Amino acid sequence: MIYALSSSNLWESFLFVFGGLGIFLYGINLMGDSLKDLAGNKLKIIIEKSTNTPLKGILVGAGLTAIIQSSSGTTALTVGLVRAGLMTLPQAIGIIMGANIGTTVTSFIIGLKIQEFSLVFVGIGAILIFFINKRFIKDLGKVILGFGLLFFGLQLMESGLDYIIVTYEEQVNALFATFSKLPIVGVVVGTVVTAIVQSSSATIGILQSLFNTGKIELLGALPILIGCNIGTTVTAIIASIGGGVEAKRTAVVHAMFNIIGAVIFMILLRWAFVPLMTVINDWLGTMDAFGPNSKMTIAIAHMIFNFTTTFILFFFVKQMVFVACKIVKDKLSVEEEEKKMLDELLDYTLIEKSSSLALKFIDNCMAHMGSIVNEYFTLARNYAFENNEDSVEKAEKLEDSIDLFDKRIHDYLINLTLSNLHPNETHLVSKYLDTIKDYERIGDHCSNIMGFFKDRYERKLELSLDSIQDLEQMFETVNLMVENSVKSITEWNNEAALVVEETESKVDSMQEVFHERHNHRMSSGACSYMNSDYYVELLSNLERIGDHCKNVADTVLSKNRATQVE
Questions:
Q1: The whole model's pTM is what?
Q2: Domain(s) of CATH 1.20.58.220: residues in the chain
Q3: Domain spanning 335-565: which CATH class is it, in words?
Q4: What is the pLDDT of residues 356-394, one digit of tens each?
Q5: Full DSSP string of 311-339
Q6: DSSP 203-237
């Protein structure tokens, strides 16, 4: 050991461990990132193109993780590709399995006795970075520097751990004895520490150093190693947050893989895994290159865990996908749900079988379209008086929904006109076409209103108190028309339709009065919020929404009158 503590200072020993861990993590990340830079953008392309089978995925995942020195990085990248729709869940499972194999390379590197040369690597790397201008050489220098820092950090951690172990030998022995007596405690410790530092390589590196001191037995060390594999799944879970269903399922599969492997090896721990590793450790002890209680023993155990788990679960990929799909169920987006509903309601086979039944289904579609229109107007009304950034995005989705219903219902009605309809049904189809167009136009006017007030908020313009009062009154009146027009078409309710008709003339009058009031405020200088044309356009949009609501109400009254005549 090159570095030792200058004094018997517990605080200094903790700093060695803490600082050494930081240098270790920085070194391994620098090495991995630099290797990715050396490989260029080909990594993603290789993953996308070369993982059409789980076996290929395993090979790619193992190779990639060996290169970038981070199974968490590979898994996060894989989740990202799944989120982007560039990879399917079965493809992702292969890479996840391979990543667990590839990560064993780090523990093998740590197991090599090259720590004494750590500063040599740091020096060479620094020279290549700062004295040579070629980008390839600079990236290579970063790889070498990261490699050296990895071992330098490990040396610092070992120095701190050695002091702590010697100073608190009795307590340390009791702690390690607990791991041997209660292996599940070791699993928990390995899981928690790895989840915190976000690197199984770091946790395993510390474990290798502890095992090398001879203070912790295999029965205590191996459960910690198993826990490290569980802890590394946290990265994938974090990467899947906010992603789609497939991304979440990928994270679930990653967790399943390591948890199932942990369960298998904990069952085999006392009567198979520990005896096997004892034999391997004794064999390594006869070799001068490694010595007793070698770090390489932990590296080999890590390899056996991941290779064995991969071999077993390779034959259960379909079952893992099935379980992941059960855990993370499909959640359709609003748009997908609407498309699904329209597919169910707009049954084209009904056109020839029963036109009256087809028209009934149209009623249901228009009722739903009306509810979206009502929601959109309410959103625009609220946005007019209170800025909410989420409202703009929601408005775009509502507009898209209205357009979707307009197109799908329109196409269905046109097909319906080509069948043998009763004259009354033909007239009704014509009215329906007008109604969905009225709804679509209300949506357009709502979009205009959203645009007006978005501009107001961006320009930080203020409404005068009188303007607010006028607009509130007009919005409230038009809102009454929208709600009753939707109610009238949903329930074919005459009373609601009559409310709309009676209110329409009131809206017309309000537009004229409020226009005059605004002109007066502008001429007197009492209102500087927007020019006359702007305000008039806003009032005009509200008045036109009222007109379209009246058209819908007229359709209801017309149909109900025709029904009474029949």
A1: 0.52
A2: 335-565
A3: mainly alpha
A4: 777 777 888 888 899 999 999 999 999 888 888 788 888
A5: HHHGGGHHHHHHHHHHHS-----HHHHHH
A6: HHHHHHHHHHTT-S-HHHHHHHHHHHHHHTHHHHH
